[in-house]
Amino acid sequence: MIEYVDVLPISIWGRLSVHPFGVLVVVGCFAGYVVGRWFAGRMDLDLTVFTRLFFWILLPTFFCSYWFSAIFYYPAQFFSAPLRYTFQFSSMSSYGGFFGGALGAIVFLYATKSTRKWEYIDALIAGIAAAWFFGRLGCTIVHDHPGKRTDFFLAVNFPDGPRHDLGFYEWLFTIFINIVLLLFWNKRLCSPGMTIGIVCACYGPARFVLDFLRIDDKRYSGLTPAQYASIVLTAFGVWLLVTRGNRRNPVVGKSSRRSVCVDAETPV
What is the pTM of this model? Predict the structure, then answer.
């Protein structure tokens, strides 16, 4: 069993304080940019375009993260005073952030008429996976996702007794998914669309199962909003792996020793 450690905010001046979760979110954004840029470089993508894409998705990611949580998890409070709750950011949803970031990326790539959309999205999702590691580490140290009581060996000994800590479980998952992505890239299994397909096909089922351990989440016909989103995400991931997996084979570029991917057809 894991001991409960409460990491408190650090007071700076008066009411101004530094919250550990907020610090890790900032660190995660920076790490996500660095890792995503590295993946983009491995694919010989335009790094200026990737930088613009990364910062373009930040606002829709954060806003949709909150709106998804407010609308589907706290509908009564939100719809009773939507203007009041629109900019409070009191609760955020990883799925809302994922869908918001995806929407922002699609708008940007189509607006810029990029011919390598899937590669930019793959580099972006690789960066998001790295950022996700720090985000869920923040959830772990503030214990904001307590689950059902249990004697499981990975349970956290909350003040009211041992419980599943779902933020901690998802943090462990982020370690797994980042290792998987690195292994795929080291073996040059980098067909366009594969990276995001792997992440979606892995996370969807894992999140669907973990949400049964949640205790306070709003449910619709027995399932949480995240579980319905998990079904959609899993189906999308499997579709990508099936349809994009054989589009092209990775080769080593002639002008560089880096592993790059060369299209066998017109990029989509």
Answer: 0.84
